[in-house]
Amino acid sequence: MSKIHVSTTLNGDAAEFLCDPSASLLDALRDELGLTGSKEGCGSGDCGACTVVLDGEMVCSCLVFAAEAEGGTIQTIEGVAESAVLHPVQQKFLEHGALQCGFCTPGFIVAAKALLDRNPDPTETEVRYWLAGNLCRCTGYDKIVRAVMDAAAELRQDRPSERTPA
Amino acid sequence: MPPFDKEFFATDRLDLAPHNLFDLVDRLDGLAPGFAAIAQPRVHFAVDGVLEADWSRDLATASEVIVLPRVGGG
Amino acid sequence: MNAPETMKQFRPKEFRHVGTRPVRPDGVDKVTGRALYGPDFKAPGMLWGAIVRSPHPHARIVSIDTKKAESLPGVKAVATGKDFPTLQSLVMHVGEGASDIVHVARNCLALDKVLYEGHAVAAVAATTPEIAREAAGLIAVEYEELPFVLGLEEALAEGAPLLHDDVFTKGVDPKPDKPSNASMRVEMGGGDVEGALAGAAVTVTGRYTMEPVHQGYIEPHACVASWGGDGQAQIWCSSQGHFAVRSLTASVLALPQADIRVMPLEIGGGFGGKTTIYLEPVAMILSKKSGRPVRLAMTREEVFRATGPAPGAVIDVRIGADADGTLVAADVEFKYHSGAYPAVDAGAGVASAIGHYKIANTRVVGTEVLCNRPAAKAYRAPGAPQVNFAVESAVDELAGKLGIDPLELRLKNAAVEGDPQTSGVPWGRIGWVECLEAAKAHPHWSAPLGPNQGRGLAGGYWGNYGGPSTVVVSLTEDGTFTVTTGSPDIGGSRAAMAIMAAETLGVPYEQVRCVIADTSSIGFSMVTGGSRTTFATGKAVVEAAREVKQVLCSRAAKMWNVAEDAVEWQDGEMVCTAGEKEGTRITVAQIAPRVAFMSGPVSCVAGINAAGWLPGFGLHICDTEVDTETGHVKIVRYTAIQDVGTAIHPDYVEGQIQGGAVQGIGWALNETYIYGENGKLDNPGFLDYRMPVASDLPMIDAVVVEVPNPDHPYGVKGVGEVPIVPPLAAVANAIHAATGKRLNSLPMSPDRVYAALHPEG
Q: Which residues does the UniProt record annotate as the domain Aldehyde oxidase/xanthine dehydrogenase a/b hammerhead (chain C) (predicted)?
């Protein structure tokens, strides 16, 4: 079976890879492009650990064929921190202790950033429903929800905070 | 000392004067061969009411040892 | 809301770092996707493996034909159970309990029989994952199907299909002469239970049931093994204990432990389920045969079908009380699934059943039952939540019958320091009453409820653990410190270790960095399990840090030509306190570059067998709102109160409490293994095995009570397991309060709640 050549924009840079027709975008990211930040918890779109943004839409990359990304723009956890500085969502996860094992964390951070990109002032309920596609087994979600709410507040104030270098 | 009383000794009380817990295990193994082989993976000892991790501790002043199933946890 | 401050009233002294909330040292890597977990590691030239699993719940393996698979281009190795060396029975304790190494090996690859659907029977390694999967499909296994048994009482019935012909019930006298599916029976207690129950003013009787549940870690099991031609091997994997991976793998393959080096990758959750091995010896065999590194990784479906779970249970409870509420007798008898191989939760279940109450007459009996399900594995306070669900439901029912407030009834009967546990061993400095008092004082307990809402509470405990740990604290050339442990960090323990080292050394937190070394780079440490790491490994950190201080003080004394006892350690500085050099100081940063010009580098190792661990107690308050039209139960408010000894890093202590409570809520309301009539698991995925998501839950108010452990330098008791114990009954009691209906079977899913509310159908 011959491989498919795919050209994309990945975290702002041009990226090309070869993939099997059956390969998922997650497989391509992890195995062809070496970006293992996106995790596979289920392979069936139920856990959200592989969440990425493809052409502006939040998707489970395990449910997207790698070949579908042709010509597309992909943002992964590796591209969330900008200019070598953590994004407020990442910073607040650290400050609130919103991760324990950290395996689900990349998916939560990509999803939370996607939420705040379109809704800068979400209610707690809105945060909880937006993140309902991401499973965390360690935290009980309490500190995750608090971190996202706090990141939203910081982004609204647009205050220059002391962020940790990525 | 359940379940070891029924599994090995047919009694739940024994009068022994071991000098430490290694010695106790040897003596219990003498009474019920096979006990020593499972003691490390399956047994905890409480000496006078306190769980004892050091089997070499001198038991000269101890009055009672309770034999318990070892619980590790998840 | 969370309690704004930890409750410090029981804490005898103030600390500089202990109790603060700094950013964890591994944090940035984990929020940026850089951290490498089990499935993330790749070795050059690596092959990809796949496992062939049994489609039958119980069958004899007649033959395995691997020829077609072997001839597929790209296939480099095939393995079956026959590739393991012949093993003698050997019981080992590796973290979660005792296991026979023969059973561990057979669970990795079956030999003569398969004992559950999903049991591994063969494996392949190939140049791509696609070829490996295709090759796995070409392996032809001929089975002779056998009758199977899934249920606890069915497995114990006369004539039930027998899983093992060499398992005789342990813990019964006389020794049985026939093999049985009951692998062990544990009985404890004392007094005259029947007499006291007969004389009790009020008694309650109930039977409580549940099916197995899974630990539900999001990271599937994965490893890479590379076995060199000289017999030495490297394994990269995530686990709760890489030393356990080493000893189990070495035992299964009959190798010297020093020939295997296990590199700990970051672990994506374990909850007890990653204290054993499934893939490592198989990857080793494939690597040996192919001469290349081999990766084996499970899919989510494989995780559900072949790992974990926690046992399901049938529990019978009778409890009696005097009219004033004094508990006079308790009779608890439970049966737990052990699955395909003998497991060990019964002993812990017996110890965790009723010890939180003073009861003069008790009988607690636990039986482990073999059946054609995956081999049960430890799950957070293994064996405790099941029996606690029954006991705390029954105590709640008793409070109702007596007309006594359920919190007051618990306070009246609560065990305190010096009271005997069920085993007869007295409790040490426990904080159970302090938790009950904190509940009474908490605004949640007296807050008004809305329509269709009810409030329940339940208390529980877990014994915690200590045991062996090795730690090295080293001074770097610039005066900063490294702390090296052998304890995998599953929820922020590197931060706790750095805090304890910084506290002991009197230096800033950022000047201490903690890493986890591989099995060849540090001495033995027991698994991260049993809520032992911050207690036991923490104790070793403090011991090694104290030795570093001592060594540096003696170096300074020598340098200044003064007596050793004339130098004191003060906040990261050595100070001369007597003689003509009195008042002379040198900082760690100043002495660090000089130590190489003295007797040598300063690096202190503490290898300890940590004793003096103490159990943890918790009390949970739950408000539910029940939709009487659908049977759906919503958790509207939840407070989890727990004595932790001392919270080293309160964020991660609260996080453990919140996470454990939510796992318990999932167990109570949704989670369950569902098997079909054919003995096959019907819900091996996160869609149908429904774990709680963010929108199912309110904030979880974690209230940290601190009754310090006198046997730990900073008072630590252990945190992680206790919080999964009380939720099952707390939710059930809240549903009862909301509806008047008591649900005795888990999960309390909408269909069951609806059926209880509408018995007419």
A: 32-147
